[in-house]
Write a structure and sequence with these properties.
The protein is an alpha/beta fold.
């Protein structure tokens, strides 16, 4: 790779990281609306002061640089404040998916060794029931929003005596900024670590590709724990726009809010676009304010791409990416010519396609997608095995990230997804790992063999389905097993069907051939 050396300079500041961008916005855009949630409106100066108060309150707990703070909250102004306040304190924010089950919460809190938890009212009792299984939360480390339960510190009380001046800390670009966990209930969920430099790069580079500007009015309809939401957060901050937060996605409320608030930007998963387009009220709203919209999270059918481009105003951009950080962009200018692709790496990224022998394949041949970029994660938290498995070394010994996805490049450099090498299921934009569901299902004593696969769903893109083989002389009730299993899983992990089978296809080494199962059960009409 080319090596570039720069001469020393005198006038450039240190790298501008996200907390510094918030500080600068609070100074130069003081009276401009920054954050709107229901009837709560914070301008950039107010958001900056609230961010500082949270940061200083957390530091007053004697937390140290790099300590982890879990955030388990429904969307609200307080959740955004907590995220920004935590990273502004030099601490690492760990926002958890609110759909995960108790076992996953315990595993993730202990895996990251969180020192504090900020939770909204809905989750206080749940956390209380799990406290004895946490091995890391400090005294007075439980902060509750809209709840004054004993043993918890109320959010407003927590901030009441805190200083709104800038926290006295030093941040460097390689410091950890946040951890986003892959969904999971197994003992070692994967914690995806992003550094401050990585997050700053997400903001500076992607805001151009996703067409953000100072007039951005960004609508957040997904959980703020999602990396899709983080992309929009970072892009809106760097552009100095305004963030509009809603509790949850509702198709008609979404259409109404786009019209009422003149929303210009949003990021959604395929199922949300499908619901918008299918709404009987779609044509009754003025959506002309939309400037740019992004879709990612799961494969988007060509027919849906075409309908979005035709019926929604503004620039429609499809993004292929992973929470870990590799991204390609299919721009509106290239959408029609390459509509069945997922675009090209945006500037600053590089990808290659490698075969089973770890050598690059010829153009047009399928292989694993590997990439390198400033926005890539620092690694998986406390998981050296996963880090090693995710690494590919080129001829110069440079580390590239293995996506586990299979794709091919055409002669113009556009990427086409073939299938996922890993068995991950993407349902409604959320990552679901079959191994987690299989681990729960395997505790049923009447089951001899089992496999969980993703099958096509008209609503979610993909949905999990379990195939089970009964032990000899054992009766199985698939409906009862489905009810039992789904009661133990996170909401987004729940299976659509439990299907009996006489046997599972295996290779000579005994490994279940899931690709064959997906082909067998491809037309379930879900």
């Amino acid at each position: 790779m080319t090596s570039i050396t720069y001469k020393n300079t005198y006038f450039q500041p240190n790298d501008i990281l996200i907390p510094e961008l918030v500080r600068q916005n609070s100074k130069w855009l003081a009276n401009k609306p920054a954050l709107i949630y229901k009837d709560k409106i914070l301008n950039w100066q107010q958001l900056g002061k609230k961010t500082n108060k949270i940061a200083n309150a957390l530091l007053a707990l004697e937390l140290q640089a790099g300590d982890k703070v879990v955030v388990l909250m429904k969307n609200s102004n307080a959740m955004m404040e907590s995220i920004l306040g935590t990273i502004s304190a030099g601490l690492v924010v760990v926002p958890l998916n609110i759909a995960i089950n108790n076992a996953a919460i315990i595993a993730m809190v202990n895996n990251c060794q969180a020192k504090a938890i900020i939770a909204s009212d809905e989750f206080v009792d749940k956390i209380d029931s799990l406290k004895k299984q946490f091995n890391c939360i400090i005294d007075h480390g439980y902060i509750a929003y809209n709840n004054d339960k004993d043993s918890w510190t109320g959010y407003d009380d927590f901030l009441e005596n805190s200083c709104s001046s800038e926290p006295q800390i030093t941040l460097s670009q390689n410091d950890e900024c946040n951890i986003i966990y892959s969904s999971g209930t197994t003992g070692l969920p994967k914690g995806i670590v992003h550094s401050h430099a990585s997050r700053a790069a997400w903001a500076s580079s992607m805001s151009i590709s996703l067409r953000y500007n100072s007039g951005a009015r960004t609508l957040f309809t997904l959980g703020l724990y999602s990396n899709i939401s983080w992309v929009a957060i970072l892009n809106t901050i760097i552009s100095g726009g305004t963030m509009y937060i809603v509790d949850k996605f509702d198709v008609d409320n979404c259409l109404a809010q786009i019209q009422k608030d003149r929303i210009t930007h949003f990021a959604m998963v395929p199922v949300q676009y499908q619901l918008l387009l299918a709404s009987e009220n779609f044509d009754h709203h003025d959506l002309s304010s939309i400037k740019a919209m992004m879709c990612c999270g799961s494969p988007l059918p060509v027919a849906v791409k075409q309908e979005i481009s035709k019926r929604l105003p503004g620039d429609f951009i499809e993004l292929y990416g992973l929470t870990e950080g590799l991204v390609t962009i299919l721009s509106p200018e290239e959408m029609q010519q390459k509509i069945d692709s997922v675009g090209r790496p945006y500037p600053g990224q590089d990808i290659r396609i490698i075969g089973n022998d770890d050598k690059e394949v010829d153009t047009g041949q399928a292989g694993e997608i590997v990439g390198i970029s400033k926005i890539l994660m620092s690694g998986y938290l406390n998981n050296p095995k996963a880090n090693e498995e995710a690494t590919w070394l080129d001829d110069n010994n440079q580390k590239w990230f293995r996506t586990g996805d299979i794709g091919r490049l055409d002669t113009d450099g556009f990427l086409y997804l073939v299938y996922r090498k890993k068995d991950m299921i993407i349902s409604g934009g959320q990552n679901i790992y079959p191994a987690d569901i299989e681990a729960t299902l395997s505790t049923r004593k009447e089951i001899k063999e089992l496999a969980v696969i993703g099958v096509e769903s008209s609503k979610w893109g993909e949905t999990p389905v379990a195939i089970i083989v009964a032990k000899e002389n054992k009766d199985i009730d698939c409906h009862e097993i489905k009810r039992w299993l789904n009661a133990k899983l996170g909401k987004q992990q729940r299976v659509a069907m439990v299907i009996p089978a006489d046997s599972l296809p295996r290779n000579p080494a005994g490994k279940v051939l899931k690709r064959q199962l997906r082909q067998q059960y491809t037309n379930l009409g879900l």
